[in-house]
Amino acid sequence: MPVIFPVTSYRAIEFFQYLFGNLRRRPVAPAPQVPLLGRLDLSNSSKDPTPGEDGLVAEISASVAIGNRLYTISSGGSNLVSISDWSVPTSPRLLRQLDLSGFETTSVATFGNLIAIAATPDNYGASGTPTPVSQVRFYSINLAGTVKEVGVVDTGFLTDSILFSADGRQLYAANEGSPNDDYSVDPIGSVSIITISGKGRNLRFSEVEVSFPDLDDSSVDLLGSGIRFSGKTGVTTSFAQDAEPEYVSAAGGYLFVTLQENNTVARINLATNQVESYIGLGWVDYSQVSVDLNDEDGPSKSELFNPLTGQKVVGLRMADGIAAWEQGSNVYFVTANEGDAREYGNYVDDKRDKDLGYPDVPSRLKLIVNGNVPSQALVLSNNLADADPTNDFVFEPAPQSPATRTGTPVSLGSRSLSLYDGITGQLLWDSWMTDDIDGTNYNTSLQNIAQFAGIYDDDRSDDKGPEPEGMVVFEYNSRFYAVGSLERTNAGAKTGTTPDPVTEGGLLVVYDVTNVNDVDFVTYQQVSRSPEGLEVIKASQSPTGRVLLGVSAEFDSNSVEFLDFGAILNNGNGASYLASYNNPNTSLAYANPTYFATLPLA
Q1: Statement to judge: residues 355 and 455 lie in one domain
Q2: Please, are residues 506 and 526 in contact by the beta-carbon 8 Å criterion?
Q3: What is the pLDDT of residues 46-95, one digit of tens each?
Q4: CA separation, residue 409 to residues 114, 341, 376, 438, 491 (Å)
Q5: Do the domain assignments include residue 134?
Q6: Which terminus of the chain is less hemmed in, N or C, by CB atoms within 10 Å?
Q7: Residue of 404, 394, 416 lying closest to 315 (CA atoms)
Q8: Is the CB of residue 364 less than 8 Å from the CB of residue 462?
């Protein structure tokens, strides 16, 4: 078997230590009884002197395996980048922090011993000043965990997610291009493709920026449904400006890029570096499923998990995280459908229904409105039967009193994960769909799993629910698993107490996507509060010799965790959830058979 060298190289002694260290057979640890191996709390190392910054340092993480040492690099939300040693996962150590003063880091990626960090100037978004471009800074890391800068590449506006290609010869960057603070300027969103050549200290970087054509461009195919164009009148005049890329994933010679506010995934052909299709992600019809959309549905407006059917409103998927993969000759991607509103100065494009007045919609549910004329609500149009995915919505003006609104309004996010054919754009599965496992129907929606786990946050019922955020898909023991992170789950909100960031934290959900036409829920795993970044550590790079799952959690958790994936599969949580359906004494609402309604593939 040939040895494939990483893009970069070391000084002679470091190179041979790297080579032989990684070729040495790693001892395989026995399967742990508890999935969580170790947790590194970075809260005390997260101070950011920049006024108004929150100091997060653990939003996104990526790891480097050198010899038998595993280094994890964590960033996101501050000027600091943390480097930690996970050679002994039960005893992780923070080694040092890079200080990128003047910049806010948003993401990190690794390949071999090369580290890429996305950094945006602190004054991005300031009114009255030119919008600055972002950078990707490249570093090498040696056996001792020492990093050295090897290159800086200017990218687009507000670089967010970054990803190395499978061979490490390219880096892909999603440049979000958000408007400035008062929405007087709307920079274009784009994707940077950075090609890396040379070796050692003589690395060379070249960048190509891919922009997003307008929706009526004849070179772009329009697939799916529910493609949305919005923005501030007189400021946002092109789809490239309106597009705000969030995450990138690569598979089958394509890049798949989430354009969250547009409810769209852009597919870029890496042979031409051109956008060749926009895939509309559609919506979930909440009248067909049992969903909790109200945070004041208990006695005396107390919190209560109370999912209901028949609510005349749809949830626009608006994906954040995405993971693409090849399976045979096919290409698929799965999305985490968080939803996102735009709030810049006086431009706000969401409003509670109590200010709009739609029948059969909870009064506190946030709905999408026209940010230019907030009395106009986004509703489904009369054009759903045609093949144009860009005309599925219209704005319904406020009716003359005492008339009521008649349209079907649209809310932010679908509180679900979804799976698509990457070529045709066809929706194949959504986590709201009935889950047939061994001939028995189950409801394995995200809200129900969180409720069973005891950490459903009813405070969020009116505002995007559990907020699925991050996604990974990978092969394990000849099967493909999709893991999603739910950002807004915590037990403390249910009791009015301050949640413990570890014991009352966030949630991961695991689905088997080997058969994309019969996706099955497997299990769930509780992790620290507000999980976002997910990372898979291959067995060949893991200090335990087993596949590990890294979880980066933001907000008050501000931590990195490593879990044994095999132990997650065997944690028994999934079996307990499914077994509850056969318990006639259960009092939980998710067990009601009337909640098994099959979700139409909108």
Answers
A1: yes
A2: yes
A3: 765 555 455 678 899 999 999 889 999 999 888 999 999 999 999 999 99
A4: 47, 15, 10, 37, 30
A5: yes
A6: N
A7: 416
A8: yes
Strands 520-527 and 254-259: unpaired
Domain count, the chain: 2
pTM of this prediction exceeds 0.85: yes
Q: Which amino acid type is present at position 593? A: P
191, 211, 231 — which closes off a domain?
211
pLDDT digit string, tens, across residues 362-371: 999 999 999 9
Please state the φ and ψ torsions of residue 32, each to the nearest 5 degrees: -75, 155
Kindly give, in sequence order, each residue whose CB lies less than 8 Å from that of residue 218, ignoring residues fewer than 6 positions away: none
Any idea of the CA torsion for 92, 93, 98, 104, to the nearest 10 degrees? 40
DSSP H or E stretch at residue 408: none
At residue 266, what is the residue type? A
Report d(CA 519, CA 602) in Å as an integer: 18
Residues 218 and 540: their CA atoms lie apart, in Å, by 46
| DSSP 8-state class, residue 369 | B
Cβ–Cβ contacts within 10 Å for residue 216, how many? 9
* CB-CB neighbours of 548 under 10 Å: 28
Would you state the structure tokens that stand for residue 115, as one six-digit string? 């580290």
Same-domain check for residues 306 and 172? no
Within-domain flag for 256:
no
Q: Which domain holds residue 188?
A: 1-211
